[in-house]
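Chapter summary example.
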Amino acid sequence: MRPTPRFARRSAFVRYASVAYVAVVLYASLYPLTGWRTPSHELLWVRLGEWPRYYTYGDVFLNVLAYAPLGLLLTLMLRTRLPAMRAATLAVLLGLAVSFCMEILQAWVPARVPSALDLFCNGVGALIGAWIGLAVAEPIVEDGALSRWRQARLVSGGRADVGLTLLGLWLFTQLNAAPWLFGTGDLQGLFDIGPARPPGCSPSPAWQAASCATAWRRC
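The structure predicted for these 219 residues follows.
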């Protein structure tokens, strides 16, 4: 069954959310983004070709859960151009491709370990997400409650879709308190500026901006 015109017109948020979620996966997979090194290619292919000796069920669950939204979003996005089953199949393949690239890149980060189990679990997650996408694509995106709420409560056009995407990113980052999206006002980390205030003093946004501006002018 071909996608309907109404389905295609309402897919802007899905496109933005898909790109944003890939960026989140990239950041989470390569965190803490420090200590980059050139890996041993032989060791990399050994790790990707063998089942890990030690793993936890928590890691398995998280790896499945992390890629389910990606499979869902990619399926909804591809439904604007492809029939349902083709969109879901391509979404799973793209999810596996993203996971494989992340596992390769993790070899450059000392704190991360590439694993064939992670790749398998990510593929399962993408498959689950694609299956959910097939079930909810028409009722939610085209003519369901979410679509009606979007039309009734938000302004039309791409600005609202971008805003919803940023809101979703912010909510998603609250699952981990370590990486603060947009720094939550703490601008010093962007410029590597040491604290110049008494311990325990919470800086105001104005103080942060002035401190960073002063440091920028000194550079």
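To summarize the output: The chain has two domains: 5-173, 186-218.
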